[in-house]
Design a protein that fits this description.
The chain is 38% helix and 26% strand. With 254 residues, the chain is of the alpha/beta class. It has a single domain, classed as P-loop containing nucleotide triphosphate hydrolases (Rossmann fold), CATH 3.40.50. A hairpin with a 2-residue loop joins β11 and β12. The chain binds adenosine-5'-triphosphate and magnesium ion.
Amino acid sequence: MTASLLDVEDLTVDFEGFKALDGMSLHLEPTSVRVLIGPNGAGKSTLCDAIIGRVHPTSGKVVFKGKNITSLPEYEIVRKGICRKFQTPGVLENLTVAENLALSARSRRECWRSFGWTLSGEARVRAEETLELIGLTEKRNQLAGELSHGQKQWLEIGMVVASDADVLLLDEPAAGMSHSEAAQTAELIRRLSLRHSFLVIDHDMTFVAQLEAPVSVMHMGRLLKEGTLEEVRNDPQVAAVYLGRVKEVDRACA
Ligand SMILES: Nc1ncnc2c1ncn2[C@@H]1O[C@H](COP(=O)(O)OP(=O)(O)OP(=O)(O)O)[C@@H](O)[C@H]1O
Ligand SMILES: [Mg+2]
């Protein structure tokens, strides 16, 4: 069995008596992709909040690289190598694509000098590689604000990658994208998973199928089922919690 990079063990988050997480467990291996699905309100975003230290669990633990990180503040968890990306792109619109990437690389170990970014040789090569990976080499000198929605999302994924995070938590990265942009995003995540691990939350089953990754299904704050998309689709409990939405799962596996 492969050693885990991130282990969520029996995590419970209580919002004044309401258990948004109720004994949730999940494991993420190094350089892998795992998809997290579940009906609205299942607790998917709360799980990300709990992993990154934004909400504090009442019981259970989060273990990263063998260390218990449950009680750490968010900035320390980020520094250790877990990053969360939100649905809205968080790029700096008045900086160029290359400057946004340089800024995120710098946030870990680079330096700022007068009016120019100085990057070490290694970081520069890394920034070039990242530009290539996210398909934005041609747009490197364009202002981030001029990019399409999909391109902004890719830039932000690239920024997280440039910061050297081991684990990326992506909450609905393909929301608001065209079919072709979503397909390119799935391809980008698959390529980046050679170096990083991804937990990807999404409702779009076509996009989920394109990730070709194991799926965890959440319901009422806990893990309902894990398996391939096909296995999850054929599970009667999953069908029951999704009700009408199960048709989307069917279509994606057809
Ligand atoms: N700060 C909070 N205080 C109280 N209840 C909350 C809080 N945050 C989330 N919840 C509740 O916890 C439950 C889980 O919410 P969460 O946002 O994690 O679900 P989700 O699976 O991400 O849903 P969606 O698919 O709609 O994004 C919901 O019932 C939500 O209303
Ligand atoms: Mg959510």
